[in-house]
Amino acid sequence: MNICVFCSAAELADVYTESAREFAELIGSRGHSLVWGGSDVGLMKVVADGVQGAGGRLVGISVDFLQNVARENADEMVVTATLAERKAQLLERADAFVIMVGGTGTLDEATEILELKKHGLHAKPVVLLNTAGYYDGLRQQLARMQAEGFLPLPLSELVAFADDGPDALRLLEA
Ligand SMILES: C/C(=C\CNc1ncnc2c1ncn2[C@@H]1O[C@H](COP(=O)(O)O)[C@@H](O)[C@H]1O)CO
């Protein structure tokens, strides 16, 4: 399976890097490929290192203005002209999506993928990996959207929630 991971480009605390490494090593050791934003920085690097170290394939989708931080030894590296094109490529190249801890970039990618799914423009699994309860607030907001009629379909059809890497992979492989 080609698993697209959205996650932070920042250097983060051990609680986040350890969880990311565990999940990345699972991706690689189970024979899956990583599709990601292609950068060799922060948590994105931790995930790429973990997948590659465990024998998995790396498919990076970078963007012109971030090419200077793109990973050099990825199996494949695509460079798009714009962020919008990058998101389209990430969607096309992935069979499933995992949203790990991140900031506005991760949120932008996550909401786009969920919005496209809401409109039936793809039906790929999306798992939100809620390391250390980082996304408790977002989960609560999404639950409120559902409870108050803002979502045209059940939340469970849009996204699944996982507490750790093994749980996330179990949901994707199910
Ligand atoms: C030059 C520096 C960092 C490089 N920044 C990024 N590189 C690649 N991809 C990025 C970068 N920033 C955002 N993205 C995309 O959004 C997600 C991460 O954003 P967040 O705001 O950090 O959560 C990630 O999935 C990327 O696809 C300086 O260190």
From TrEMBL:
Presence of keyword Ligase: no
Species annotation: Streptomyces abyssalis
GO biological process: cytokinin biosynthetic process
InterPro entries assigned to the protein according to its UniProt record, in alphabetical order: LOG, LOG_fam
UniProt GO MF annotations: cytokinin riboside 5'-monophosphate phosphoribohydrolase activity
Taxonomic superkingdom: Bacteria
Reactions this protein catalyses: 9-ribosyl-trans-zeatin 5'-phosphate + H2O = trans-zeatin + D-ribose 5-phosphate; N(6)-(dimethylallyl)adenosine 5'-phosphate + H2O = N(6)-dimethylallyladenine + D-ribose 5-phosphate
Family: Belongs to the LOG family.
Keyword Hydrolase set for record: yes
Alphabetized UniProt keyword annotations: Cytokinin biosynthesis, Hydrolase
Enzyme Commission code(s) on record: 3.2.2.n1
One Gene Ontology term, aspect cellular component: cytosol
Full protein name: Cytokinin riboside 5'-monophosphate phosphoribohydrolase
A Pfam family matched in the record: Lysine_decarbox
